[in-house]
Design a protein that fits this description.
Length: about 325
C-alpha cells in the first residue's frame, strides 16, 4: 500500500511497554523472562489442544474480535482469524483497501468507528510505527499489535521463540542465532531480538550495511560484516524478506547481488551446527533471501512457525480478552 511517510519515525515512548496485567500486547521490548516463558507455555498448551483434534473450549464465546489490516497479510491475519473462530469468537475482518480509508477517513476516526460497533479485541496491522499504541491509548478495547511499521510484531516474535524452544529442547541460554537481511526495516527482527535477548540468546545480525539499523549498536547484538563466518557453529539462522515497501529507492539492493552475498544457500547453512534450524517469517522470496533447497530442506522450520502462529494467537487472544473483561 502507499507509504504514509511515518514508517521510520520512532514509536511513541512506551509503545512497547509491558505490564503483566495489560489487556494489550504491543511489543516484546521490556517483557520479562518469566512472562515470555508463560506465553510460550500457554501457546504450547493451545497447540496440544489444536493437535488433539477435539473442538477447542469456547473461551472467546461472546467476544467480538476485529482484525483491522492497513497493510497486506496472509499468515498473520489468517492465523488470528482461525484462532479466534476456533475459540468461539465473533470475528470481523477489515482491510484498508476497500474501506473508507480510501475516502480520506483518518486512522483515529476509522478506529473509533470500529470501536463503536462494540468490539472487545482489536488486532491491528499498520505501516506506521506506534499505530497500535495510538489505538490502545484511544480506544476502550484490548489491542494486539499485528505489526506496526518497522517497530514490532510481538506475536511473530512469540511464535519464533516457540519454534526455537522446540528446536533447542527448551534451552535458550548460550544458544546462538544469526538474523540475516533487512534488519533496518524489519519489525520481525526487532521483536525477535527483544525476546531472544531476554532469554539469554547470543544474536548476530548480518546484511548489507545500508539495511542495518542506525541504532544497531544499542540493540545488544553482534553485527557481522560477512555472513559465512557468522554462521559457523550457529544454532539457528533467520532469513528476512527485503522490505521494499519501507525502503527509500536508493536502498533497494539488486536481487542477484543480494542473493550472492546474503542468501541462505545449502553451502552456507552447512556451516551451522549439525542440528541447527532455519527460520523465515514469510512471505519468502525464493532465490533471493533463501535458496529453494534450504526453504524445503530438513533444517527449515518455516511451516512449523506458521502452525505455531495459530497456537500463539489463541494464547494471546484469550489472555487479552480476559484482561479486557476484567477491565471493562
Ligand atoms: C512479516 C511481516 O509482515 O512483518 N510477515 C509475517 O507477519 N509473517 C514479514 C514480511 O512481510 O516480510
Amino acid at each position: 500500500m502507499t507509504s504514509t511517510g511515518l514508517e521510520h519515525r520512532p514509536a511513541p515512548a512506551g509503545a512497547g511497554r509491558f505490564s503483566s496485567s495489560s489487556r494489550h500486547l504491543l511489543g516484546l521490548e521490556g517483557v520479562p523472562r518469566e512472562a515470555l516463558l508463560t506465553w510460550l507455555d500457554e501457546a504450547a498448551a493451545w497447540r496440544a489442544r489444536l493437535r488433539g483434534g477435539a473442538p477447542l473450549p469456547q473461551a472467546l464465546a461472546q467476544v467480538i474480535v476485529v482484525s483491522a489490516f492497513f497493510e497486506d497479510s496472509t499468515r498473520t491475519r489468517m492465523s488470528f482469524e482461525i484462532a479466534a473462530r476456533q475459540l468461539g469468537a465473533t470475528v470481523a475482518g477489515f482491510s484498508a483497501a476497500g474501506s473508507s480509508v480510501s475516502k480520506g477517513e483518518s486512522l483515529l476516526d476509522t478506529l473509533r468507528t470500529l470501536a463503536a460497533m462494540g468490539l472487545h479485541v482489536l488486532v491491528m496491522r499498520h505501516p506506521s510505527a506506534g499505530a497500535a499504541a495510538l489505538a490502545a491509548g484511544a480506544l476502550p478495547c484490548a489491542v494486539v499489535n499485528a505489526g506496526d511499521g518497522a517497530h514490532e510484531h510481538p506475536t511473530q516474535g512469540l511464535l519464533d521463540l516457540l519454534t526455537l524452544r522446540d528446536a533447542w529442547q527448551g534451552r535458550f541460554a548460550g544458544r546462538r542465532i544469526v538474523i540475516v537481511g533487512d534488519i533496518a526495516h524489519s519489525r520481525v527482527a526487532r521483536s525477535a531480538i527483544f525476546g531472544l535477548r531476554t532469554l539469554g540468546v547470543d544474536i548476530t545480525v548480518a546484511g548489507p550495511p545500508s539495511l542495518m539499523p542506525r541504532d544497531v549498536g544499542s540493540l545488544g547484538v553482534t553485527h557481522a560484516p560477512e555472513l559465512e563466518p557468522a554462521l559457523d557453529g550457529a544454532d539457528a539462522a533467520m532469513a528476512l524478506r527485503l522490505q521494499r515497501e519501507r525502503m527509500e529507492s536508493g536502498l533497494v539492493p539488486e536481487a542477484g547481488d543480494y542473493a550472492r552475498r546474503w542468501a541462505l544457500t545449502p553451502a552456507r547453512v552447512a556451516r551451522m551446527a549439525a542440528d541447527a534450524v532455519v527460520l523465515h517469517p514469510g512471505p519468502m522470496n525464493r532465490g533471493i533471501e533463501i535458496a529453494p533447497e534450504v526453504a524445503d530442506g530438513p533444517r527449515a522450520r518455516v511451516l512449523d512457525q506458521v502452525a505455531n502462529g495459530v497456537a500463539v494467537r489463541c494464547a494471546v487472544l484469550v489472555r487479552c480478552a480476559a484482561a479486557q473483561r476484567i477491565a471493562a
